[in-house]
Design a protein that fits this description.
single chain, mainly alpha, 2 strands, about 0% strand, globular
Length: about 220
C-alpha cells in the first residue's frame, strides 16, 4: 500500500508519523542557515554571509537533506555522513541549479509576483531531479517543467498550504518576541524544528507527482538515493 494523495492534510499527517528517524539529522543540516547569521553582529557582513551561504553551501546541505528524507521514506537506514558525501559529489550540479533558479525566480518574484509564483511551482522539482535522478542542471529544470505541466494547482495548493501551516508558529513567535533580545534565536530555532517536516512533506509531493507514491512503514520500497 502506498500514499498517493496530494491532500495537504494527508501529507502532513503522514509526515508527522514518519519524520522521527530523520528529524535530528535534518535539523542539524538546517542549523547553519538559521543560526550562523545570528552570530554575526554587523548587518552588512550578515547580508554578505547569507548571500554566499545561499549560493555555495545551502544547495549542498539541501542535497544531503533530500537524500536523508528520501531514505527515510524508503524505510532505509538514515546516515548523515553518507548523505553529505553523496551531496558533495553532486555539489557542482546542485550549486549551478540553485544559481539558475535564482536568476529565473528572483527577478520574476521581485518585479512580477504572479509570474514568479507560477515559475516557482513549475520549477519546484529541479533540485530533486538533480539529487535523486542524477540530472544535469538544465535537464533538471526541463524535467521539473515537464513533471508539473498541467498540474500547477496540484503542486501549488499542497505546498502552499503545508508551508503556511508550518510557518504560522514562526510568524506568531516572531511577533511575540520581536522586542526581546533573544527573539531572533527563538525564531531561528523554530525554523530549524519545522524544516524536517517541511522537507519531508514537499518530497512526498514530488514522489506522488513522479508516480512513485510513498511506501507504508512496513513495506519494502525500491526507491533510494
Amino acid at each position: 500500500m502506498t500514499q498517493t494523495s496530494l491532500s495537504p492534510g494527508v501529507i502532513l499527517r503522514d509526515a508527522f508519523g514518519r519524520v522521527g528517524p530523520v528529524f535530528v539529522p535534518v535539523a542539524l543540516l538546517a542549523l547553519p542557515a538559521n543560526i550562523l547569521p545570528l552570530l554575526i553582529p554587523s548587518a552588512p557582513l550578515r547580508g554578505t554571509f547569507s548571500i554566499l551561504f545561499a549560493i555555495f553551501v545551502a544547495p549542498v546541505l539541501g542535497g544531503a537533506t533530500i537524500v536523508l528524507v528520501n531514505r527515510a521514506l524508503a524505510n532505509e537506514a538514515v546516515d548523515l555522513g553518507a548523505a553529505l558525501s553523496m551531496a558533495w559529489q553532486r555539489a557542482g550540479q546542485l550549486i549551478l541549479t540553485s544559481l539558475l533558479l535564482m536568476v529565473i525566480l528572483i527577478p520574476s518574484l521581485a518585479l512580477l509576483l504572479v509570474p514568479g509564483i507560477y515559475l516557482s511551482v513549475r520549477l519546484f522539482a529541479s533540485q530533486y531531479e538533480v539529487m535523486l535522478e542524477r540530472q544535469s542542471p538544465m535537464d533538471a529544470l526541463k524535467a521539473s517543467w515537464s513533471l508539473t505541466e498541467g498540474r500547477w494547482w496540484s503542486v501549488f495548493w499542497p505546498t502552499f498550504a503545508i508551508a503556511l501551516l508550518l510557518l504560522i508558529p514562526v510568524i506568531l513567535l516572531s511577533v511575540l518576541f520581536m522586542n526581546a533580545a533573544f527573539g531572533d534565536w527563538v525564531t531561528g530555532l523554530i525554523g530549524v524544528a519545522i524544516t524536517p517536516l517541511l522537507v519531508m512533506s514537499f518530497l512526498m509531493v514530488y514522489k506522488v507527482l513522479k508516480g512513485q507514491g510513498v511506501s507504508d512503514t512496513g513495506d519494502a520500497s525500491p526507491i533510494s538515493a
